[in-house]
Amino acid sequence: MATSIFSNLFSFLLPAFLICFLLLHSSNNSYAFPSTLGTMDFKRSHILHISSLLPLIVCNSSTKVKSKRSSLEVVHKHGPCFQSNQDRANAPSHAEILSEDQSRVDSIHSRLSMNSIEETDAVTLPTKRGISVGTGNYLVTVSFGTPPKKYALIFDTGSHFTWTQCEPCAVFCHRQVEPIFNPSKSKSYANISCRARTCNQISAEGMQQGCASSTCLYGISYGDSSSSLGFLAKEKLTISRSDVFPSYLFGCGQDNKFLRGNRVAGLIGLGRGNFSFVSQTANKYNKFFSHCLPSDDSSTGYLSFGSTKLPKGIKFTPMPKSFKGTPFYGLDIIGINVGGHRIPIKRSVFKTAGAIIDSGTVITRLPPAAYAQLKSTFQKYMTNYTKAPPVSILDTCYDFSRSDVIVIPTVDMVFNGGVKVDVDFTGILYMRNESQGCLAFAKNENADDVAIFGNFQQKTYEVVYDDVKGRVGFAAGGCR
């Protein structure tokens, strides 16, 4: 009883103490707070040092991946935890990152609006279909071959094919961190014959199919001009000592193009489809995997496979069946909360085109009407801050250069089944620098464009994909 009384008293006094303390020190420490601070619900707000939203230069590696079976460490491509970060001078600017992100969104919308996949002549390899790789923010390291060699690959829940650059790079290979995979030095590598049934499945999976000296060729191109063309092959894929797949189908790329700043070996597809990692490992993992994306570029997360142990506090939302025939995992958004209050958006606004979750899209995209309400409500909480110019697709920006500490409202995404994702504070503002921090949501061009729950808002959550049961789960504090 005493503990309960103390807890209640503490909860009552804490907001008042914070207000007095912060206001007392605001003049000396350049703190800036909204005029509504006295009535703001501190349980539904974030009080932040600006420095907590800015990138660090030292890697802060998590130990959680080491405690989880069948797991890979996830790192940010442009962060200090990736060994290529010494090449950060060539990293794209914020405007370029957001432009690449828009290219991916455009290609997703285009793909989902296609009524059918057309077949084209093999001599036109590679085909110009498929979604954009976009920024390809997050990487994992897997091993190919016998003996196994490690390679950093973009992991992508919106793609359904795995490929890596291969010697002899008959046409072109971009620079990558590791030595390029050499199939002639692997005892387990084997090309797929043109006569094989597997070869004939390539076109059905939305890729280009061809032949060269009886060897099956694949061609895949993305909406941002990234592409890979090469041999369809089987090889030993190693995730860990106990997770080895001796006949994994993948693309051995001989002509490969990535956007500037991508010094990775290739891509591992975690979407739906016969060639995806999820489908090829279904006998072991039962189409069940999860990931936690770190809170910032200088931290690490993980990608885990199999359902050995569900995280505490996980809540599942059912996947709508409307995306079954695509590589994407669907979501059913029913609302958005700001500062703990539901903003007025009709349910039909989200139902018009539906929504997906995507690890490769950075910024969450909302229907125009939903974004307008989110923007308007968010602005009401931010009246004490000077507005700043937009950054590419982000049009609700503020200048925090005169503030060491800021207060922003919480933002929750609410999904079918009452599942509420309280977006981590690092996923609410996209910081270009101290003088330009923007609401990290953007609007779709049209009301009938699918909404996308992007990776920026997924940070710190363990996101669980259970394709057999048709559900997606969210558990807070996943990376800790």
3D architecture notes:
By secondary structure, the protein is of the alpha+beta class. The chain contains nine helices and 30 strands. The strands form six sheets. A six-stranded mixed beta barrel has the order 3-4-11-5-10-9. Strand 7 (208-212) and strand 8 (215-221) form a beta hairpin.
Using the alpha-carbon principal axes, give the shape.
globular
Mean pLDDT equals 85
What value does the Rg take, in angstroms? 23 Å
SS field, number of helical segments: 9
Low-confidence stretches: 1-39, 115-129
Task: Give the beta-strand count.
Answer: 30
Distance between the termini: 31 Å
Major sheet summary line: 6 strands, mixed, barrel
Which helices and strands, and how do they pair?
Blueprint lengths: L1 H28 L15 E5 L14 H4 L3 E6 L17 H20 L24 E7 L4 E8 L6 E3 L24 E2 L5 H4 L7 E5 L2 E7 L5 E14 L2 E15 L8 E4 L7 H4 L1 H4 L2 E5 L8 E5 L9 E4 L10 E3 L1 E6 L2 E2 L4 H5 L3 E3 L6 E3 L1 H14 L4 E3 L8 E3 L5 E5 L1 E5 L3 E4 L6 E5 L2 E4 L1 E3 L7 E3 L1 H4 L3 E5 L4 E5 L5
Parallel strand pairs: 4-11, 5-10, 18-28, 19-27
Antiparallel strand pairs: 1-22, 2-3, 2-13, 3-4, 3-9, 5-11, 6-9, 7-8, 8-9, 9-10, 12-13, 12-29, 14-30, 15-18, 16-17, 16-23, 20-21, 21-26, 23-24, 25-26, 29-30
Quickly list its features.
single chain; 4-stranded antiparallel β-sheet; alpha+beta; 9 helices; 6-stranded mixed β-barrel; 480 residues
